[in-house]
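Morning. Coffee machine broken again, so started the prediction first thing and wrote up yesterday's gels while waiting. Chain of 575 residues, entered below exactly as on the submission form.
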Amino acid sequence: MTVVLFFSGQITGAASFFDALSTSLTGAPFFSRGSFDSFSGSIDDNSIVKVSSNAGYVDDILLVFLDKVSFFDRKRIFDSAGGRCVGFLEPANLFVLQVSFNGLDEAGALCENLMKESGVLYACGSYAFRYNDDYTPNDPFDGIDTGYDRWDENNPGGSTWWLEAIEARNAWGYSSYFNHINIGIVDSGFDTTNPDLNGKIIFPTGTLARQNIPSAHGTHVSGIIAARGNNGKGIAGICQNSALTCVDWEPEEGQNWIPDLRIIFGVGYAIKAGAKVVNLSVGSSGSIPDGKPAYPALWMNAEAALVSVYTALLYKEGYDFVIVQSAGNGDSNGNAVNAFNNGSFCCITEDNSLSEIVGVPAKDILDRIIIVGCARNLGSGQFAQTSYSNVGSRVDICAPGSGIYSCSTAENDYYQYMSGTSMAAPAVTAVASLVWSVNPALTGAQVKSIVCDPSNTRYDVPPAGNPFWSTPDYQSYRLVNAKLAVEAAIKTIAATGIVKGRTVDSFGQGKSCEITADKGNKEFSFCSGSDGYFEFILPAGDAEIQLINSDATYTAIHAAVSAGGTADLGDIITV
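Came back before lunch.
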């Protein structure tokens, strides 16, 4: 017999009663679908059953993804495993069950039986790894000068080299196209009192706000993405017209073992709260001893299966997103390994994804994941991968990550230098956010395509010269470029043409100059390089351009901009 229960909007008392009954019998309400994680406070390093020195699982926890089933089916499914719900993630219909089992074999048998039950999409254990913040705070920063900064995209240097290398300043010249965007960060804690971040950081729930333990790492990542500009303090983040939805994945200070449950719940909370791009500067490759595989391939593939199903269900529920993860900082000795070993979204491939079981092709998932390697500055517009930056086919792009000056905690006077792939990933997160803010109608796959398209980059990032570079895992990647990615996004919504030329002094020598233009309700502002050369795009039509000298005098010039064409203004003498 099938029992169907209907509650109209007026009969809220009956629904509340049934929710209370459901909670009593199964551990979770039926009608009130809000996410909750009552399990999180009880899971710490002592909850992890270790199968090796750096891999394990959470004792007595199983994860079950359900289709939309009735209360009675749900109770039947939970009872079949002897489980009680202690957590629920709404976007993916993921239930966290507390189940008594003895060892992996028994857990595996329970999961196999669960997946035979009608209405169960997927069931697995909660995998755990020794996770690391992917940064090296004691890095010597490659001798980068930290003194007076002269902004020069042709020769990035000083504490702003990372912004110069990705041409952030000229990307900001298109700010009249930027819409506000919500960016997610799952990291190890955030200092909300930092003057460049105060008021920008929000938490999805009051519980997550109380759980937050301020950390230099999470705060540094946040600053790279979205620190306020033009406030006379600290730094300028890449995507400033944004809010940061943050989740501290480290519920206990100093915790080493983190179940993937914490990572995926963090991502889910951020996406449910409206985040379009989510940053993960975290990974597990740092526990690999001497470059030797730390985890059996089956173990990493099992993790990939869980994360791919979870991601596919988010997508199937109508959420679109881009997830950016750092490639990882090598093994326990800091030597680069394949980024596949960095866990979470790094280990998903076409072969091990199980997204198809919920009707989502693996490509749709991989097209929304960007894995980021770390670049260091060699000077004179030359870059190379850092020796610790993980490699392989899972790496999509590189970003500046060595010697990055950004926000920090109050105990560090709010600012400090850090190095690592942790610092590279947020640069790509911010560029992807700029792209999506230009055209909110883009899909996550289109955003990744724009950001990672080699034609939207300027620099190559070759191997570092490490003796291991001769292996097939090692290859060159491109350096993310904010200006070119933003221009590509603008071209999806407007007919544009190129304006280029060179600003020179009266002796014909190239000189840097500020360049502004007004086009209808859009204002543009750029700078020519130290060699005087400039190139930018404008909407098609006539444009009046001003070239402003350091003493505030200016030269005005007319440009006829045709759609798809190039207006070459040649040498322009500015005095």
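Residues 1-11, 136-149 have pLDDT under 50 and may be disordered. Going to sketch it on the whiteboard this afternoon.
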